[in-house]
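quick one before i forget lol
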Amino acid sequence: MHRVIAAVLAVTACASTTQAQTSGSPPDGPVLTLTQALELAHANAPSLDAANAGVRAADAGERVAGLRPNPTVSADIENVGGSRAYNIIEAPKQTVGIGLPLELGGKRPARIAVAVSQRGRAGIDQAIAEADLRESVTDAYVETVSAERRLGAARQQARIAGETAHAAQVRVEAGKASPLEQQRADVLRIAAEADVQKSQRLATLARANLERRLGQPVSGRLDQDWFDRIDAYGPPQPRDGMTSLSVAAATADRRTAEAQLRLARSQRIPDVTVSTGVRRLPATNGVAAVFGVSVPLPLFNGGSAAIAQRTAERDKVDAERRSAMLDAEQQVAQAQADLANAQAAASNAIGSALVAAQEATRIARIGYREGKFGQLDLLDAERTLAQTRTAAIEALTVYHRARARLERLAATAPSPKEDDR
C-alpha cells in the first residue's frame, strides 16, 4: 500500500516537473494572458483602423445622401454685338437669375435609404474585422504556447537522451553491455539535440509572429494554465434576435441592393428645375421679372436598363444570402463536432495516457541502470513517452484552435432596426 502511494506521489511530482520543463516560456517576467493579448492587438490592428474608417465614410455618405441639390445662379448679357442693327454695341440687356432643382419621384428618400443600408454594412464589416482579429490573435497565442511547449519537451528529451548515453557508456566500460548500445544511444542523443535546435527556431518564429499581431515585443511568459484548461466552450448557435456575421453581411447586401433598385425606379421620373430672375432693359431703363421651367426629355435613357441591372443584382445577392445561411449552419455544426472531438482527444492525451507513459519510462530507466532491462526496452519507453507528450501538446493546440474557430463562427451582429429595413 505504501509503495502504491509512493508511486502515485512520484508520478504526480514527475508530471509537475515535466509540465514546468516542457514549457518553453521565459522563466521571468509577468504573465501575458490571452485577454491582455487581445486588448493589445485591438489597439494596434490596421484591420480595425480600416474598418473604423469605413464606418466614418459611411456616416459621411449618409449625411451627403440627405443633402438637397444646390441652386444655380446665372447671369446673361444680350445684344452685345452682331450684324446689321446690332453691329454697333448698344446698351446690353442684363439678366440675373437663380434656378432651383426639384427632385421628384422620391429620389432623396431612396438615396438616403441606400446610404443607411451601406452604413449598416460598414458596421457589420467592423464586427467581422474584430471577430477575425480575435481568431487570428488567439491562433498566434496558441501557436506560441504550443511551440514553447514543444521546445520544452525537446529539451527534456535531449536531457534524457544524454543521461541514457551516459548510462550506456558506464555499462559498456563496466563490461555489462556491447559497444553497440553506446553507439545507438549517441545517435539518439545527436538526433534529440538537433530537434532542440529545430524547436527553438519554431518557438522564436511563433513568438515573433505573436509580437507582430500585438504590435509590441512580448518578453514575459504566456499563460500556461489557460493552455491546460479544458472545458465546455462557445455558444452552440446565435442567440435569439441575433444572426451570424456572414448571414448579417449577406442580409445587409440584399438590403442595399433593394434600396438601389428603389433608387433606380425613382430616377425614371425626371427632375424639374424652376428659375426666376430680373432683367434690366436699357432702352427704358426699366426692370422686368423672368420666370422659367426646364424639364429633361428621357428620349435616349428612360431608366429601364438601370432597373434591369439593379433587379439582377438584387436577385444575385438574395441567392447569396440564402447560400450564406446554409453555409453558416453547416460550418457551425462542423465546428461544434470538431470542438467536441478535440475536447475528448485533449482530455485523453493529458490524462491517464501521459501518466502511464511517464511511469513506464521511470521504471525503464531504473531497470536499465540496474541491468534488469535492456536498452531496447528503455528506448521503446522513451519513444512512447515522447510521442505521448507530443500528442498531448498537439491535442491541446487543436482544442484551443477549435474553440477559437467556433467563437468566430458564432459571433453575431444585432438585428437591423425596423427603420433600416
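fyi Residues 8-72+103-271+320-420 form a domain with the Outer membrane efflux proteins (OEP) fold (CATH 1.20.1600.10).
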